[in-house]
Amino acid sequence: MQPIALQPRLVAGKPCAMLPSRTRTEIVNIHASCVTAGNGGVLILGNSGQGKSDLALRLIDRGAKLVADDRCDIWFDRGRLWCRPPENLAGKLEVRGIGIVERPWTAPVPLALAVRLTDRYDRMPAVGQFETVAGHPLPALLLSAFEVSAPIKILLALERLAPAA
Q1: Which portions of the chain are predicted below pLDDT 50?
Q2: In this structure, are residues 63 and 153 in contact, taking their beta carbons and an 8 Å threshold?
């Protein structure tokens, strides 16, 4: 879903700022990577060198699709956070030791989960953790990117977030 620009309505043949058909959607560009799997997008947040691209690559190896690497355009529309890559980075993924590689990608995607990369996290985390992204809450998970089980933990968290069938 692309953000929609302001389209003023006409009242008595004149534009009326009080009755826009849509308000302009603010797009925030953040340092993150994103893939889509299961029921939505997984936004991977962390410092440089913490493993965002590596974790995205391992999720792609498990069937996820690339949305964006290194930079993500985020916006809120119709009650959800959305993600797409900046135009100049679409389909590009940094693979340490190899360089920038081109991969198939998809966008825009609704975000379902934020993964905050950290070296240490609680063994039994509190229920209902959230990360504020572009001013809106998003269910969150703290993980170490380089744990072998990190991609599996993310897929399990997505399953848990999926609406009951």
Answers
A1: 2-21, 164-165
A2: no
Rounded Cα distance, 154 and 114, in Å: 10
* Residue indicated by tokens 């309505």: 9
Task: Give φ, ψ of 100 to 5 degrees.
Answer: -85, 130
What's the confidence (pLDDT) of residue 24? Answer: 66
Q: Which long-range contacts (CB under 8 A, 24 or more apart) does 90-99 make?
A: 91/66, 93/53, 93/56, 93/57, 93/60, 93/66, 93/69, 94/53, 94/69, 94/70, 95/53, 95/57, 96/53, 96/54
* Pairing verdict, β 40-45 and 33-37: antiparallel
pTM of the model: 0.83
Tokens representing 23?
A: 């308000």
What is d(CA 114, CA 98) in angstroms, rounded to the nearest whole number? Answer: 27
Query: According to the model, what pLDDT value does residue 155 have?
Result: 95
Domains assigned to the chain? 29-161 (3.40.50.300)
Instruction: Kindly report the length of the chain.
Output: 165
What are the backbone dihedrals phi and psi of residue 58, each rounded to the nearest 5 degrees, phi first?
-70, -35
State residue 161's pLDDT score: 85
Which pair of tokens denotes residue 21?
């058909």
CB 100 within 8 A of CB 57: no
